[in-house]
Amino acid sequence: MEIICYLSNGYPTIEASYKIAHEYADAGCKMMEVDFPSRNPYLESDFLKARMGKALEACDDYDKYMESIIRLKKEFPEIKMLVLAYENTVLEIGTEKFINFCLENDLKDILLVGLSNNEVKDQIIEAGLQVSCYVEYHLPQEEIELAKKSNGFVYLQAKPYETQEKNEKYPTLKDCVQYLRECGIDRPIYCGVGVHAPEDVKLVKEAGGDAAFVGSTILKLHDDIPAMKNKIREFRAQC
Description:
By secondary structure, the chain is an alpha/beta fold. Helix content is about 45%, strand content about 15%.
């Protein structure tokens, strides 16, 4: 199992985010989620919205973000990279251009969010890329069906919110992972949301997850690089 660190591409500048990627790699990170900052990241927390906004203030040229990801791929061939992009960003770049960029640089795993319909998603899948799907902790049937039909990894909510609907048949994360496997889903299951401490990573591993997203906890330590790298190592020790 691995942890997945989130790279706010371009925050506060492209060069600064590149240096953070170096620190991630030095701390032992083997998987990285890299975003294209969206002009309308309406699904994100205020924290991530602000980071994307700041990145676009510094550079609003998506070609530069593509160049930065290519640079990262060349510098860190051993790190598996997942690309996060909003549909509105893909359309601004141009769907065909985005697809070709991903194919040419072996970026096969796409977190495509903010869909207005399935047109862009279907084009990306037909081109041979793998689009992830999100499944909430209480396992809504419609999300299970979408996960069955998807061709990418499953992003499974790791811990429920206090006010969230519960599924009494599958009360634990291990139950959720097992149910997805029983549904015939044999693709990787990466767990995120609520993974803030080393014991949460251990929970994901014991549940049978293939990786754990540790985004915000690491992002909030960017102003203290030694503490950030130490936290990454603490997380990885539980893998």
